[in-house]
Design a protein that fits this description.
Elements lengths: L14 E5 L4 H12 L3 E6 L12 E5 L5 H15 L4 E4 L14 H29 L2 E6 L12 H21 L4 E8 L14 H6 L13 H12 L10 E4 L7
Parallel strand pairs: 1-2, 1-4, 2-3, 4-5, 5-6, 6-7
Amino acid sequence: MSTATGSSFDLSGEVAVVTGAARGIGLATVKLLKARGACVVASDVSPAVGDLAAHDVAAFCGDVCEEKTAAGTIALALKRFGSVDILVNNAGRTINKTLIDMSVADWDQIMAVNVRGNFLHSREAVKVMIAQGAGVVVSVDSIVSAVGMKDTSVYAASKGAIAQLTKVIAVEYGDRGIRANAVAPGVVVTDILDGIVEDSRSALSGYGGAHPIGRVAQPNDIAEVIGFLASPASAFMTGALVMADGGYTAI
């Protein structure tokens, strides 16, 4: 890992892996990390991730919850750029159903993507980071890991698991030079609810009044926090759940 020289947000020479990179927060994060000097492996289940390929971006298409995807993504980073300094666990899915309407298949699908995917990529990346003597894991969590909302039972459970996994990585590998933190967004205007609610982006934007700041987030708002947590500027932070929620959880 590079140390802070000039700007503590500078990521020149760093290699980052970003899951769920084809759209939303993941896409915004790829662009921000590139702008700050990092080379990036962008991973997504959508073939659209291939459109991101460039001299400083390698694309990997695969299902985040499969072991071969995690292994392949990390291997690509090593082959193409020579290291894995930053892992951004961003890929995730949701479903809006009450507890009693939730099927086992619904539960297993969300937990596989959100929790197993995080675990697999963290495991493979941390192996490399141990050998390097340094590394940063940043996971995209949610305010529902800290507060209750209707119709989010499996999503909230998955995000609670991510918050705890982040803490365990921090305490297990802090003495190996590895930091792990998570960002917990409030409502962000992405396509995560496409196919779940009608006119999903407008529906998400309508939650602005629930946030003391008076609006919902855009993907770049969260990417900026991820960039901070991935950088030397946050060198003394590990095991933290950082609320980027426009004040929602302060109410």
